[in-house]
Amino acid sequence: MITDLAINRDPDSATEAGATIIRVAVPTPLYRNFDYQIPDGIALAQLRPGCRVRVPFGRQQLTGVALELRAQSDCPAHKLKPVLAALDAEPVLDADLLELLQWAARYYHHPLGEVIHIALPAPLREGRANAALTISRWQTSTGGDAIEAVTQLKRAPKQLQLLQLLQQYPGGLDADQLNALTDNWRHAMRALLEKNLVVERQQSALSPINSNHDSAPRLRHEQQASVNAIMASLGEHQVHLLHGVTGSGKTEVYLALTEAVLAAGQQVLVLVPEISLTPQLGECFQTRFNVPVAMLHSGLSDNQRFIAWRACATGEARLLIGTRSAIFTPLPELGLIVLDEEHDGSYKQQEGFRYNARDLALVRAQKIGVPVVLGSATPSLESLHNAVRQRYQLHTLTQRAGNNHKVRIELMDLRKQKLEEGLSALLIDRIKQHLQNQGQVLLFLNRRGFAPLLLCHACGWSTLCARCDAHMTYHQHKQQLHCHHCGAESRAPQVCADCGDSELVAIGAGTERIENHLRNLFAETTISRIDRDTTRRKGSLQAKLAEAHSGESGILIGTQMLAKGHDFPNLTLVAVLDADQSLHSTDFRAAEHLAQLIIQVSGRAGRAEKPGEVVIQTHHPDHPLLQTLLHHGYNGFAEAALAERQLAVLAPYSHLVILRCEAVKQGAGEEFMRAAHDLLQRFNPTGVSIFGPVKAPMERRAGRFRSQVMLQASDRRPLHRVLQFWLPQLQALKQARAVRWSLDVDPYDTY
Ligand code: ADP
Ligand code: ZN
Ligand code: ZN
Q1: Nearest to residue 339, comparing CAs of 390, 288, 380?
Q2: C-alpha distances in angstroms, 561 versus 344, 447, 535, 565, 570?
Q3: Are strands 571-576 and 440-444 parallel, antiparallel or unpaired?
Q4: Which single residue of 73, 168, 415, 658 has CA 20 to 30 Å from 551?
């Protein structure tokens, strides 16, 4: 659990009486806030903390957020410029949220101005009014005869095209969406409206309240016990870890708690890893309650996000379901935070302001005195550790709801076995058996494309990326090479670029190759591949999942997209094709991730009447991690892994910070890192160990050379003290101009 860092009390902060100056958080990468004079025309009420102001900044004008009134500035008075305009009558960020953002800026050592900027919806960042916004949506009018419309529009191809586009989206499209799909549509739309072929509606922020909502099932004993225990802490701060095996009905626990909090007149925040991957959870909440629900996720346009944000801030929305950044939404009557799949890496922002939404949820809940429920079938080692230390209250659900069967996990020894395109003969037999018994099969492989590289059989040349220390993946269907690290694409070579030989061999197997091979082996079976390549088109993931759910596809091949909470009732065999990839990883969390993956995908099997079975292909069947997981389950694994972490003094037994740097010129990065390291040595920090500078595990990516320094400490305080002094000085280094650097507090991985 994160402890608060000291706040320096400042003698110059002022009450309204003596105030002539306003301190403003301005969106710049500088580690400081800026003071401005308050001109006569602006009322102090418009400069309350959390109100936006327009201020001059160098030659620009920026939208900043007022922090505090002051009697004096450290800057001489004649140098202070006046505020240009006050933009809000009421703060856009309430006191609680502003405090959270200030906390986050201190904790992650990120400039407050940028933190606030990221937290605000785009229209507010741009200085637009914080006022109700409606979005027009157009949809085809019902009742009109489609064929008749086509004849009517024979001479107006643009209108016909637009109408046909709208016909594909029964829910209608808004301007942002139309702009993305087509251009110059407004004129044609007006014509279609006049012909009554299209109707325009004002879309409200929130999903329509449904009147015939689902009723809750009777909770089972374990579920009820968890609900009761958590309910006892409503109205105070407590972290609850709900560790429930897959299918044990964690969602019903969330729903029961949510119902109680809504009934008490409070708002509820539900955080989920990625809505498009777990649409069921959102639907569950929407169909259960009779209240306005807001959703925030990456599929929305800026205006849609703003509308949802505002509905939460005004209290109109009672329930917010959102991904990572929803943690920054104002919810004045927040009474409970639920965070599902708490172990999931997507809660951690991996670039820029690298916050962790799980940790911020805990801080937010602590500050306002409300409980948090963290749920998972495979809790992170950090959270289990906190449960052991009784900082979190642990609740367990051990039984799967309904008549689910226990799954059997088996390690399939690949040594000395012949592999066909990454599949062992034993596994292929097993697939055959399950298909014969009308079972569905899921093959899991976290590598998309056909093969990770092409190799020249004559000279050893291979398809390296020109900009990364990595191979380009061969995508056979498209006849292209893709670099999965920098996004580079090129045509697949027909001959070796070095010696011209035509025998290029595809080494290793990705999902595309597995799919091809299985199509040959099981021509009669419907096979569906679900990865980023096959689900790029909007709606295609939903369609594929629906097909998989219906049991139509006999074999599913997927990447981690399929590891999440999907329910395939017919699934009886799950195979993890390449566990060894993780066993060989240098990342200290790799073992934890592999264990979580195995348990999560195992949870997909045997959900209905049919017993399930899980097969893990590996060359290391005796690996202690795999053995512990098999014989002692996730808890046994976690215990062993925590003991290892303790010996190695890794998280959660120590705190880690990484300074990363990337430079176009190799030498520039080294020079910066050396200077940064020298500064660090000068502080001579006791209680902080310094590792590096070293090259990043993949030194060159997207044409930049990357290096890093790691700081490790068993106590956070000396670590944060060092950072507080180090960072502003880093920024001032002349070597900093030739590089890009960033700081990662509590990194998710060490790449
Ligand atoms: P988890 O999130 O823990 O993996 P889910 O919440 O998805 O599990 O629940 C698994 C299934 O069990 C769902 O189909 C859910 O509707 C059902 N279920 C959960 N609780 C009950 C209950 N008390 N009675 C009947 N069915 C339940
Ligand atoms: Zn060659
Ligand atoms: Zn690349």
Answers
A1: 380
A2: 12, 11, 10, 10, 19
A3: parallel
A4: 168
**Interval between CA 457 and ligand 2 midpoint (Å):** 7
Question: Do residues 454 and 493 lie in contact, with contact meaning Cβ atoms separated by under 8 Å?
Answer: yes
CATH number of residue 619's parent domain: 3.40.50.300
Ligand nearest, relative to CA of residue 256: 1
**Count of structural domains within the chain:** 6
Q: Is the beta carbon of 287 within 6 A of some atom in ligand 1? A: no
Is 110 inside any structural domain?
yes
Q: Are residues 522 and 590 in the same domain?
A: yes
- Of all protein residues, the one whose alpha carbon is nearest to atom 9 of ligand 1 is 249
How many A from CA of 251 to the centre of ligand 1? Answer: 7
Tokens of 204: 């409200």
CA of 218 to the centre of ligand 1 (A): 11
Please state the length of the chain: 751
183-239 per-position pLDDT tens digit: 889 999 898 888 888 888 876 656 656 655 667 889 999 999 999 999 999 989 999
Strand order from edge to edge, sheet including 135-140: 173-174, 135-140, 198-203
Measured from the alpha carbon of residue 377, the closest ligand is 1
Best mutation site among 242, 246, 252 for ligand 1, i.e. most ligand atoms within 8 A of its Cβ?
Answer: 252
Ligand 3 centroid vs 473 CA: distance in angstroms?
10
Domain holding 121, by residue range, is 16-125
Task: Give, in order, the Cα–Cα distances in Å from 566 to each of 25, 192, 275, 458, 562.
Answer: 43, 41, 12, 46, 7
